[in-house]
Design a protein that fits this description.
Helices cover 28% and strands 23% of the residues.
Amino acid sequence: MKAAVFHKPGDIRVEDVEDPKLEAIDDVILKVTSTAICGSDLHIYNGFLPQTKPLVMGHEFMGVVMEAGAGVRDLKVGDRVVVPFPIACGGCFFCDRGLPVHCEHSNDNYGPEGGLMKQKGGGLFGYTDLYGGYSGGQAQYVRVPYANVGPRKVSERYTDEEVLFLTDIFPTGFSGIEWAGVKGGETVAVFGCGPVGLMAQKCAWVRGAARVIGIDIEPYRLEAAKRTARSEVINSREVDPVEAIREMTDGRGADVCIDAVGMEAHRELLEKAANIIHMQAGSISVLKQAISAVRRGGSISILGVYGMPYDNFPIGQIFDKGLTIHSGQALVHRYIDELITWIDEDKIVLDDIITHRLPLEDAASAYDVFNRKTEDCVKVVLRP
C-alpha cells in the first residue's frame, strides 16, 4: 500500500509499505477514506519530537472496516468510522477513570514519569516510538487496535469532511473550553488561529461565551478566525496582545486564555540563542502571554504541545494571580459522543476551515506548504 513515511526531519516520502495485518482479536483494518495533516505532525517533521526510524504518519483519519478480529463486538466489515487519535484499552486504571490518553496498556514506553525522553502515557497513532510506534493513517490502510473502545460509527448523511475532525482537532479545541469551565458570558482569548485554535473559538460560542478573541501573527489565519468563527482578532505581530486584551476587558484580562500554539511559537534571535544556552527546543512565549493576558482567578488551557522543561517558567506570576491551568492531550474517547450530537444538532460546522484537498501522493509537498504557512494554508485533507 501507499503511505506517507517520515524518514528524517523535513523528509516525508509517499512510498510502498507492507499492508497492515490483524495482530489481536480486537483489531480492525480500515481502508482510509480521508486523513489530514495536523499541527502536531509538524513537531515530528521539524525534529522537535525525536524519531530515528521510518514511521507512517498521521493521527487524523477515518475509513471503512475491511477486516475485523474475532473479538470485535460492534463493528463489521463495511462500517464507516472515525477513530480517536489516542489508543486506549478501555479497562485499565486510567481508562476506567475517563483518562484514556494515559492508558497503561497501549504503549510499551508507558510510565509515571513523563518528560521528553522519559516514560510517556498511552499510545498515539503515527506519533513516534515514544508513543508506541504505531503506524498512522496517512496511508491507504491502517490497523486500529482496541477496536471495541475507540472507533465510532458515523452516519452516511455526512461527508467525510463534515466529521473527520472528530478524530482530533474538534475534541482538542473543545477540551480547552471544557477544562476552563466555560458556561456562558465569559471572554475567551485563544492564542493561535490554526485548526485547533479555530475549533476552540467555535466551541467557545457553542458554550455561550460573550466574546471570543483570536490572536495570531499570520493575517490569513486571522481572516480565517473572522470568517469561520466570527471572532474578534488581534495581530500580535502588530500590537501587544496582552495590552490589547486588557483594553478590551476594562483592564482585567480575559476570563479564559487558551494556548493553541505550543512550543513551535515564533522566536526572535535572542530567544533562539537562549535555547542553545539552556538546551531547550521551541518556546513558551505564547504561554507567557496567555498567563499575562488572563484575569486574576482566571483559567488557562494549554492545548499546544510542549515537549520539555523550560527556563524562566513564570510560576510566581501564576501563584500571585491564582490561576487554574489545565493541559494535556484531548480526552477524545470521553468527549466524542457528545460532540457527535453537536454535529447532529447543527450546533457547529467543521469543514469550513479546510483550505487544501490533495491526493495522498502529494503528502510531501502538502507538509511543506503547511509547515511554511504558504498558500494561506489552514488545513490539509488528503485522499488515499
